[in-house]
Amino acid sequence: MRILVCKNYDEMSKKAAQMILSQVTLKPNSVLGLATGSTPVGMYKQLVKMYNDKQIDFSEISTFNLDEYYNLPKENNQSYDYFMKENLFNYINIPKENINIPNGMAKDVEAECERYDKSIKDCGGVDIQVLGIGHNAHIGFNEPTINFERGTHLVDLKQSTIEANARFFDKEENVPKKAITMGTGSIFKARKIMLLACGESKAQAIYNTVYGKVVPEVPASILQFHNDIVLILDEEAASKLKPEDYKIV
Ligand SMILES: N[C@@H]1[C@@H](O)[C@H](O)[C@@H](COP(=O)(O)O)O[C@@H]1O
């Protein structure tokens, strides 16, 4: 695990965007695995800026998002489909047909999950996967559980995740209780993984991810076994790590 610590959120976002830029420059038809949540918003802003400055071209890029709420229409301003358009897709030149997000409104969820996994495979797999992390170390919507899930699946969200995401909804009752997410197995298959975390509230989850036992109760701990993973943290999220284990950038 490579761990880079940035002074603050802005620096973290810039570093993350630079890594995407290198990936896209080296391979213009890269497959990007994308995440939602407040953490990657700054990175998306940087990518839009790079696009406006003609530094990056998304015309051959394909994307796969990690997850989507179940039974929340795309048009709802809290759907992840809406989030991605608002934060990235509306402002760059990615072809619409190259964008993939699980369909949370699918009637046959099992078929939708199979279709999603097959699309990732048919695209040649994810080149670089962007991840945020939940307070309980969930990645995508893979909540702490008793076994690592392989492929895309429907999950029941933990009460703590519902509470954490309630800040985006009018009322907690409106937060969906289920989501469709890529499995830890699918995430792990990405050739490169870049996990972003900021703020003190993520420090314990980061500590457990880096030093804890690899167990499905700490979903992100599986990343210890990945051979090309970088954690990009701000100082607060890194505050429980030993200084000899990270590089300040
Ligand atoms: N499904 C998303 C995750 O992909 C994200 O990492 C997490 C943390 O969000 P935030 O970055 O807002 O703390 O929130 C949600 O649960």
| Overall geometric form | globular
What structural class do helix, strand and pairing data support?
A: alpha/beta
- Summed up, the helix count is 7
CATH topology: Rossmann fold
Radius of gyration: 17 Å
Number of E strands:
11
How do the strands line up in the largest sheet? Answer: 5-3-2-6-9-10-1-11
Low-confidence stretches: none
End-to-end Cα distance, whole Å, is 16 Å
What is the domain tally?
Answer: 1
Give the rounded overall mean pLDDT.
Answer: 96
- CATH C-level category: Alpha Beta
Quick gist of this model?
With 249 residues, the chain is of the alpha/beta class.
Structure description:
Strand 2 (31-34), helix 2 and strand 3 (62-65) form a beta-alpha-beta unit. This protein has one domain: Rossmann fold (3-Layer(aba) Sandwich), CATH 3.40.50.1360. With 249 residues, the chain is an alpha/beta fold. Helix content is 29%, strand content 18%. Residues 35-39, 66-67, 132-134, 140-141, 161 line the site of 2-amino-2-deoxy-6-O-phosphono-alpha-D-glucopyranose.
